[in-house]
Amino acid sequence: MVSAAPDRRLNLAQQLVLDLSRKILAGELPAGTKLPTEQVITQERGVSRTVVREALSRLQAEGLVETRRGIGTFVVDTIRPGDFQGNQHEKGSAYDAVAIIELRLSLEVEAAAIAAQCATPSQLLAMRYALDEAHALDPANEQSTRLDFEFHLQIAQCTANGFFIDAMTHLGSMLLSATQQPTPAVTEPLRSLQVREREQIYAAVARQDVEAARAAMRLHLTNGLHRARSVVQSAAE
What we know:
The protein contains 10 helices and 2 strands. The protein is mainly alpha-helical and 237 residues long. The chain has 2 domains: 5-81, Winged helix-like DNA-binding domain superfamily/Winged helix DNA-binding domain (Arc Repressor Mutant, subunit A, Orthogonal Bundle); 89-236, Four Helix Bundle (Hemerythrin (Met), subunit A) (Up-down Bundle), CATH 1.20.120. The N and C termini lie far apart (55 Å).
């Protein structure tokens, strides 16, 4: 049996990257803030120093933090999601969620197709683990969106393309910031639909069906886009 340990470690690092980058982009950790030491983060998060170092290295590569030798790691001044999009809506609004899903459509449909061609057994195990975690959680739980996005991050990881992975990590932090706003409760029929859509994506990737993976991801994100647009429309009425 193939071990999923390397993927699990990467999964933990991605979770830490998502959390810290969301706080940075949302302004909860403003420019100049000194991050806790590796030892403190390790104790607070219950992860290894290797995981913390991988996460900090990724944040530094994304230009969100800088390490000053002998002093520590600091948040640098960066473009926030609202600035990046150049719109006039409130940062972290439903408008942001729509824009992010539109961008994800252009990326993740092909990422799913590549994953169907390239996913290794251990990567499929990591996808399955992320999927099971997302499905086991109550959709009302504040961690629901993060766990759902972990599944999508695992698909990006299967591409072995650093640009896909970096783009998805950054989009994830922006999406988590956008979904801090109140949204309609997830009904049981909707939850069942979302579970079925994700399972279809996983099944297509697992059986190496490129076209089915494309179609399943497109359907999943298009349905999400329609729901996000409905939230915007309702807010405007």
